[in-house]
């Protein structure tokens, strides 16, 4: 069973008496493992479970006090594209979610038969899994899956010393050290973090931002200010058409007066030439877990330091609407700037929608390379912005009454997260660093114009980028730039070489999350079920490399493929 690292013998004893399922291990200066996994995300968890099932001694190091990343942090509306592309431990997780909700005792705030999942079918006779869930349910399922394993040590609240914590010898990592001083030695290391911190600290070649279309022969990368473009397959992509402002929203503090200065969060620079690269990244937000159940609801509160001016663009967007508010937008909720997807127990997964919403556009550029303290400040700024947004939509008199009536029925949940205000700590890191390996996944892979011959999983979601910049257009009005929504040709293979570094960089590291992909290809790959798939495949490759004394780049694909199939991965 899983072993939980503890800080003291007394705490360990309490854990034995209360938890039963965990076997604590007293911390030492150095711990030795076969496989060391940094990041308790969905990918990290699947890597740990697979490593254990292949008989490897593994440590799963989570920098915070909660495992599961976005899967337990609010992203309960699973983005898939094609469920048949999801196999192995990833599908096992969603099957366990379905089993969890088959139990009547897990339906507290509503009856199971009254739940409708908004399109992620659970009731079809052929459906063996459930794809929508509460964060707390995902956390329970993950912990249950981990607790059944014999060889996993789970460590909380240990952050990598990013400056001097990675020790290397002869092209291999020998150990990593945490800020606490704890050292973990291993044969193979897996970076399952959203930020790619271990990869970067180990000196791996990587990139941040958008590549120019010319670099890899793409059409959807780089700056995307135009509203319509063609994909390589000559299908139309409505870039910038969605999640944008209505026409005529004035960007200046005093309307029509450029000398008064721009309103908050508008970039003074023009977007640039379409298709050119930059170092900017798509917007982050919190995937809110909301409820309208009176007994479980925490009403939206005005955050400390609230500034009405921060939401002036929201007011003006409603005021600039030509005709009824409900006719402002082409799709989604016609009234409220959110995608409010139903989850079980009268809860939601609430995401960004429209021109001014939960995405904090342009306020995350420094996040990938920022220090831990700087990242904390960025995350806090995002949370204050989003808390202020929800209070504004629910209660501010300049918001249309119908919007206030709709939003004020909702609030955060008392029973989901550790904080008293019902907000989670996991920021939605849509992208950060991306490795550059011998195989870079591109738009051509997503459109199956180029097909990887060594698949370790499949992507199936559309090529998706949230907005990246807010600017003043040629007409003097505010617009967002960076949104891309383009179909893929169908499920497509993800190359093994895209999750391992170049041999000249390092020979015993695998990177299933911040893998080698362009900005636009990563926008399709970056889905939690796919991260679980790639995490499992990383562990299978790591186990083979240990058993046969291979560098990770030298694992024979046919040998890897056989084990991938044996563990039910979908490769074609």
Q: What level of helicity do the residues show?
A: 10-25%
Calculate the mean pLDDT score and round it.
Answer: 92
Structural class, please? Answer: alpha/beta
Distance between the termini: 34 Å
Explained architecture:
This protein is an alpha/beta fold and 572 residues long. 24% of the residues lie in helices and 16% in strands. It contains 13 helices and 26 strands. Mean pLDDT is 92; it is low at 6-26.
Can you tag this structure with a few keywords?
572 residues, alpha/beta, 7-stranded parallel beta sheet, 4-stranded mixed beta sheet, 13 helices, 24% helix
Task: Set down the secondary structure blueprint.
Layout lengths: L2 E4 L2 H11 L5 E2 L3 E3 L2 E4 L3 H12 L4 E4 L26 H14 L33 H13 L4 E4 L10 E4 L2 E6 L5 E3 L2 E4 L5 H5 L4 E2 L5 H4 L12 E2 L5 E2 L52 E2 L5 E3 L12 H8 L18 E6 L3 E6 L19 H24 L5 H7 L3 E3 L20 E2 L7 H4 L8 E5 L3 E3 L3 E4 L5 E4 L2 E3 L5 E4 L13 E2 L8 H7 L2 H21 L8 H10 L6
Parallel strand pairs: 1-2, 1-6, 3-9, 4-5, 4-10, 5-6, 10-26
Antiparallel strand pairs: 7-8, 8-9, 11-19, 12-13, 14-18, 15-18, 16-17, 20-25, 21-24, 22-23
Concise structural overview:
The chain has about 575 residues and is α/β, with parallel strands linked by helices. It is built from 13 helices and 26 strands.
């Amino acid at each position: 069973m899983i072993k939980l690292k503890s800080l003291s013998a007394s705490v360990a004893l309490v854990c034995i008496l209360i938890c039963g399922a965990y076997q604590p291990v007293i911390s030492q200066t150095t711990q030795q493992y076969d496989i060391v996994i940094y990041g308790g995300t969905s990918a990290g968890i699947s890597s740990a479970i697979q490593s254990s099932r292949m008989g490897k001694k593994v440590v799963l190091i989570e920098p915070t006090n909660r495992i599961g990343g976005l899967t337990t942090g609010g992203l309960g509306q699973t983005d898939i594209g094609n469920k048949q592309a999801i196999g192995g431990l990833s599908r096992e997780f969603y099957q366990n979610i379905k089993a969890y909700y088959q139990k009547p005792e897990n339906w507290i705030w509503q009856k199971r038969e009254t739940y409708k999942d908004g399109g992620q079918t659970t009731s079809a006779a052929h459906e063996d899994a459930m794809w929508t869930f509460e964060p707390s349910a995902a956390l329970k399922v993950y912990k249950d899956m981990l607790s059944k394993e014999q060889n996993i040590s789970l460590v909380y609240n240990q952050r990598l010393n990013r400056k001097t914590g990675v020790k290397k010898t002869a092209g291999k990592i020998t150990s990593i050290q945490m800020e606490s001083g704890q050292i973990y030695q291993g044969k193979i290391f897996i970076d399952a973090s959203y930020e790619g911190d271990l990869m970067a600290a180990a000196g791996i070649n990587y990139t941040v931002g958008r590549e120019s279309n010319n670099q890899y022969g793409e059409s959807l990368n780089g700056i995307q200010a135009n509203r319509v473009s063609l994909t390589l397959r000559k299908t139309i992509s409505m870039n910038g058409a969605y999640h944008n402002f209505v026409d005529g929203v004035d960007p200046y503090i005093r309307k029509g007066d450029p000398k008064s200065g721009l309103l908050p969060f508008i970039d003074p620079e023009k977007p640039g030439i379409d298709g050119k690269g930059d170092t900017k990244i798509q917007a982050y937000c919190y995937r809110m877990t909301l409820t309208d159940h009176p007994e479980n609801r925490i009403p939206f509160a005005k955050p400390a330091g609230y500034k009405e001016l921060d939401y002036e663009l929201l007011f003006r967007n409603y005021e600039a609407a030509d005709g009824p508010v409900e006719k402002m937008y082409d799709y989604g909720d016609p009234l409220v700037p959110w995608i409010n997807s139903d989850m079980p127990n009268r809860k939601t997964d609430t995401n960004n929608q429209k021109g001014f919403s939960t995405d904090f556009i342009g306020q995350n550029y420094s996040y990938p390379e920022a220090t831990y303290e700087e990242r904390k400040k960025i995350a806090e700024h995002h949370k204050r912005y989003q808390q202020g947004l929800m209070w504004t939509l629910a209660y501010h008199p300049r918001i249309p009454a119908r919007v206030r009536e709709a939003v004020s029925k909702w609030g955060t949940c008392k029973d989901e997260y550790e904080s008293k205000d019902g907000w989670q700590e996991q920021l939605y890191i849509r992208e950060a660093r991306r490795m550059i390996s011998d195989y870079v996944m591109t738009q051509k892979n997503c459109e199956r114009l180029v097909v990887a011959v060594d698949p370790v999983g499949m992507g199936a979601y559309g090529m998706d980028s949230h907005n990246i910049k807010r600017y003043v257009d040629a007409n003097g009005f505010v617009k967002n730039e960076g949104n891309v929504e383009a179909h893929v040709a169908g499920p497509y293979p993800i190359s093994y070489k895209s999750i391992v570094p170049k041999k000249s960089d390092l020979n015993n590291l695998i990177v299933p999350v911040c893998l080698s992909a362009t900005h636009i290809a990563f926008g399709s790959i970056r889905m939690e079920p796919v991260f679980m798939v790639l995490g499992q495949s990383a562990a299978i490759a790591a186990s083979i490399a240990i058993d046969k004394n291979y560098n990770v780049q030298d694992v024979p694909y046919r040998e890897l493929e056989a084990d991938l199939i044996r563990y039910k991965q979908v490769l074609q």
